[in-house]
Amino acid sequence: MNQPLTDKDLAALFAYNPGFTPTTSGSGNLNLLQDIYGMAGDPVLAYQQGLVTPQLLLQMISDQTKSTVYSFEDTDYQSIENRAMSVGGGTGDEVLLSAFAQIREGMSLGGVQRWLLQEWGKDGLKKEEEKVIDVLLGPNGELAKYEERWLNSQNASARERAGELTFDSKTGNYIGQMDDDSARDVLKSFGFSGLLAQPAFWKSIPDDTYIQKALADEVAASSKYDVYQDLSRKLLGSSTSAAQSAYTDFLSQAKPDRRSAVVRGGERGPTTLRTRADILANEDGKIPIRSRADVLSEQQGNQDGRVTIDYGRNRSATVRSGGGAGGQKDNSNAGIISRLTPQEQDYWAKLAASYAGRGVQTEGQGKVSSAKAEVDKLIESSQENRRLAEENAFNPALALLAKAPLYAASLSTPAAKPAKAKPRTLSDQEIETMASMIAGGFAG
Predict the structure, then answer these.
(1) What is the pTM of this model?
(2) Where do the structural domains in the chain lie, given as residue ranges?
(3) Which of 101, 272, 281, 351 has the most neighbouring CB atoms within 10 Å?
């Protein structure tokens, strides 16, 4: 049972809530205190007194008018896949998993049903299997649930990318704005009325100047990206062409009877052309890179027909270039290349192709990188302009709240009453003239 407040209680209450003059009664004091608390909780008053910033007020309205659009269960198709994967000792239900894949590719449930009948009917479809298909495709079946959740997931992701929904990583829910009726009820519960109770009135309008700048940047970025793609394609074509030419030119220097040689794969499989990379690959699988000039110089200086190639980690390979010690040899490029084995010719030809291709790539990469940098710069500028557009956005509700006190002050000021004209004091001459006129009238 509630006890009435004593003078001591009221004194403690005033000490805890200073700043107002108490009334002459306890009930009056409580009513006054309740009014103060009510005013303190008024979002309009808090905003106009600077207790709540515009950003905080908008954030509060936005948070309070949001709801869950898709729950975690609405979009969780992975758990259905996991259940299908767990059957058969972990091997998974291949047919069911394939049906899921068909749904992800866009096949309707009717199409999946026909596909299942065809797959399971290869060895004759049993009645039990027909019933299983009916259950899977039923309202509560795995395939029907999977399709619903998959479509929800795709729609939610698309709306999130468009900025309509926000994904809550803690709950797995997708959050969006309430419908207008529900949001209107929330605004009215805050004490808003009229236009301020309309959800659309609280939506900010991005600054048009920055929006136009952002759009211009995006158009320019798209154009520059086309230039970047064109340069990249041309550079790739040029480097490929240079590599192919270098490969062909190198082999063209060998004698015809050596160029046509082919190395058999032996026990490893069908006939293949093995490269020098198979022979000289080091422990890391990397091919030793040495210039052709170095190798040819070594070959020319070696009189016994052997060339030793050192490719690091205390490892080397010795190859025979043909001819014998003391014999007369052709030390021209063509002669040296012709004395190489087919594998060696192919290896050094590929190495020449690699150097030629990389040379063209290095030479043209500057223009490609410059074009890519321009694209990135325009994209960053567009993103910054969109941020500024939101930062400088116009919000109708905040504009109305900012001007409301001026309107209230104007309306609360009473209009001035019209002043009455004071009677004018007549001069002596005017009095005598009027007296003469009056006397003359009587005499007549």
Answers:
(1) 0.52
(2) 7-66, 68-177
(3) 351
Pairing of the two strands 173-177 and 66-70 = antiparallel
